[in-house]
Structure prediction request, 125 residues.
Amino acid sequence: YTKTWSATVQRADAFVFVMPEYNHTAPPSIVNALNYLSLEWAYKPVGFVSYGGVSGGTRGVESLLSLLATLKLVPMPEAVNIPFFFQYIDRETGSISLGDIQEKAAVAMLDELLRWTEALTVLRR
Prediction:
């Protein structure tokens, strides 16, 4: 399992973590996924789409920052935060329709993620 996970992370140049806030922190699944590896994460940028209640998952993202620094991941300050995410779910279809604010945030985050992905290429060699 760990070798497969290692190969998957090693192949990627950047990441977008989609995560809820869990008890004012990051969910254990993401913390474990990060902690299983070390060198594979180095010099890769990461963007966030977080969701939750009033904070939109931002407390969960904040709780990961020291771990990301230790693993040499580069977090993007631009992020997509979805407060009270249940309001965006269509109860009949289960589809999600976000607002203009989240769509603009996604464009900004992905543009910055691409910029950092290209800039960090030299360090990943």
